[in-house]
Design goal:
By secondary structure, this protein is an alpha+beta fold. It has a single domain, classed as 2-Layer Sandwich (YaeB-like fold). The protein is built from three helices and five strands; from the N terminus they run βααββββα. Strands 1-5-4-3-2 form a five-stranded mixed beta sheet. Strand 3 and strand 4 form a beta hairpin. The longest helix is centred in the N-terminal third of the chain and has 16 residues.
Length: 91
């Protein structure tokens, strides 16, 4: 299964500390091993799944899409304005 990363995700990860980057890699591996781990979204974001995880008592969300055998990671962030930003990013 191939994983592709959009620029919004790459920019977010690049700005983070190394321990947080490693936690993100672990979460991506978890998604890669079991793509159905995220919850399906509804409405305008119905094509996406969102996986949630915590790092230092803060919850982060990763939005991704499954296309056959490929996974495309769109963006990551905290819950605040996450879905609004995801909707704007995909328009």
């Amino acid at each position: 299964m191939a994983v592709f990363y959009k620029s919004a995700f790459r920019k977010f990860v690049k700005k983070q500390t190394r321990p947080f980057q490693l936690a993100i890699e672990d979460e991506i591996d978890r998604i890669k091993n079991n793509p159905s781990v995220g919850e399906d979204k509804k409405g305008d974001l119905a094509a996406f799944k969102v996986s949630k995880f915590k790092f230092h008592h803060q919850q982060y969300l990763i939005a991704y899409e499954i296309n056959g055998n490929d996974i495309t990671i769109y963006m990551m962030g905290t819950h605040e304005n996450f879905y609004r930003d995801l909707k704007r990013y995909t328009e």
